Amino acid sequence: LEGDEDMIVQEIMTTDVSFVTADTTIEDAVGIMRNEKVQTMPVVGPDRLFVGMFTVRLFLKKALPGYIRSGDLPDVRFAPDLPQFHETLNKMRTAAVSTVMDANHPTVVAENSSLECAALLINPKRRIRSVPVVDAANRLIGLVTGWDIIKELYR
After folding, report:
1. Cβ of 7: how many Cβ atoms within 10 Å?
2. Residue 5 confidence class, pLDDT cut points 50, 70, 90
3. What is the C-alpha separation between 44 and 128, in angstroms, rounded?
4. pLDDT for 38-51, tens place per residue?
């Protein structure tokens, strides 16, 4: 990068993006994510309209008891319901990803700067790993990760 130039999202985004629909089971979504070695999966509706993001973190968070999610029990080794944790994860297999997805996940458009993406990715309140790229109609057209930004800078 020279001077004040900033890459735009279109130059760094991944366009070959897998996605699931809101009614996809968690088990199927996790299978796709395992095969693709990713921790986030965009969720779309008809015409690839972006409706949310399914993540491993949200899935685990939903399966944990509330007092652990909130941080009220700092040492989870003594949590009374840890034996039920795996059972809860198992029961959630057939639930739809829409029951766990982040429906307010931030998005960008292709004309946004990589700086805007980087700011979203490091926001401690959001804890996101990827930013979906949508068109003017909110259709999913790509995805940007921190790696996409870094690898472009060090070409």
Report:
1. 16
2. low
3. 18
4. 999 999 999 999 99
Pairing of strands 40-44, 20-21: parallel
DSSP designation for 101: S
Instruction: Check residue 113 and report its DSSP letter.
Output: B
Q: What residues form DSSP beta bridges with 14? A: 143
pLDDT in tens, 84-137: 887 888 888 999 999 999 999 999 999 999 999 999 999 988 889 999 999 999
For residue 52, what is the enclosing H or E element? Answer: strand 50-55
What is the token pair recorded at 27? 């088990």
Neighbours of 92 (CB within 10 A): 17
Q: Which two tokens stand for residue 80?
A: 């009374």
Ramachandran quadrant class, 109 (left: phi over 0; alpha: psi -120 to 50; beta: rest): beta
Q: Do residues 2 and 110 touch, judged by C-beta distance below 8 A? A: no
- CB 35 within 8 Å of CB 101: no
